[in-house]
Specification:
about 20% strand, single chain, globular, 5-stranded mixed beta sheet, alpha/beta
Length: about 325
């Protein structure tokens, strides 16, 4: 009898808890939401987060604060997000390196990419470009010839591990000795090209697009065959280099929450982001700059992260890149 009564009490408590979570989700949000971006303002992650945040604020009537926390290859921002309360009021605009590559680059991370976050949805894939200064080579073939004539004399910059790997894979496939120079983010990488500290960069078109259109830099190739604004008519790198086995490469972004965030709130956030990214005007604006909307369910995003981890683990083992 006591056991039956105890089971009844537990069942009632479970129902009450479920009802409380449902009520919390229905009224969510009731205060400001913070989206942590692990890069400086102006980069692809920041731009996407601000677009989503602005629309969320308009629709929900609550401020959405973009919290830029750059540094340590996104680890600073990721650690802050992982330690936040799982209530839906702190979100994290993760990049592929945060949830996939970092676990293979460091001996230990202050966060677990699989267990410390609740996936919400992928948001975009960005097309990156191989870009040089206006007084630099005018084609990929010319760049290859220049690099082979002076091994180790050219530098390339990248603001993410994915961009670094783009350069690494191309240079290895083409037999080029080009020195890597790290930057904290894409805007700094672009500035490095403009000031002459590097001669080549691999950067998201969403950031370099205005400079390409204004004639301040030249895009020689895109790293993905999809069209992207000012680099619409520029060849894919594999084609321009005559390296058909060089696969297309892109950078993806995704929104996650700290672990323990209630599923109804995760679902509400996913539905809102999907609605925002499906808007025709938003999609057109995004695609013209090379940030292609990419929406998934939380479950699909979680599975995608693990698939990407398996794919990039092999690549990083081949390159033997380590950060500590």
């Amino acid at each position: 009898m006591k056991l039956a009564r105890r089971c009844l009490v537990l069942a009632v408590l479970a129902i009450w808890a479920g009802a409380a979570v449902a009520q919390e989700a229905s009224s969510f949000p009731t205060r400001p939401i913070h989206i942590i971006v692990p890069f400086p303002a102006g980069g692809p992650s920041d731009i996407v987060a601000r677009v989503i945040g602005q629309k969320m604020s308009e629709d929900w009537g609550q401020p959405v604060v973009i919290d830029n926390r750059p540094g340590a290859n996104t680890i600073i921002g990721a650690q802050a997000a992982a330690k936040a309360a799982g209530d839906g009021y702190t979100l994290f605009m993760a990049i592929d390196s945060t949830l996939v590559m970092n676990q293979y680059l460091y001996k230990s991370l202050p966060y677990d990419p699989f267990s410390d976050f609740a996936p919400i949805t992928t948001t975009t894939k960005t097309v990156s470009a191989l870009v040089v200064a206006m007084d630099g080579p005018k084609s990929v073939k010319e760049l290859i010839a220049q690099a082979k004539a002076a091994p180790g004399k050219l530098n390339y910059g990248a603001g993410t591990i994915t961009a670094q790997l783009m350069g690494h894979r191309f240079h290895k496939a083409a037999g080029l000795d080009i020195v890597y120079v790290p930057f904290k983010g894409t805007p700094e990488t672009v500035n490095g090209l403009l000031t002459g500290s590097v001669q080549i960069i691999y950067a998201a078109n969403v950031t370099v697009n205005p400079l390409i259109e204004s004639g301040k830099v030249r895009a020689l190739a895109k790293l993905d065959r999809r069209t992207a604004g000012s680099i619409d008519n520029i060849p894919a790198l594999a084609d321009a280099a005559g390296l058909p086995d060089l696969e297309d490469m892109s950078v993806w972004l995704g929104l996650v929450a700290p672990k323990g965030t209630p599923k109804p709130i995760i679902d509400k956030l996913q539905q809102k982001v999907a609605q925002i990214m499906a808007d025709p005007a938003m999609r057109d604006k995004s695609e013209r700059t090379g940030a292609f909307p990419m929406i998934s369910t939380p479950e699909e995003f979680g599975q995608f992260i693990r698939q990407e981890a398996g794919r990039w683990q092999k690549v990083l083992q081949e390159t033997n890149i380590k950060y500590d």
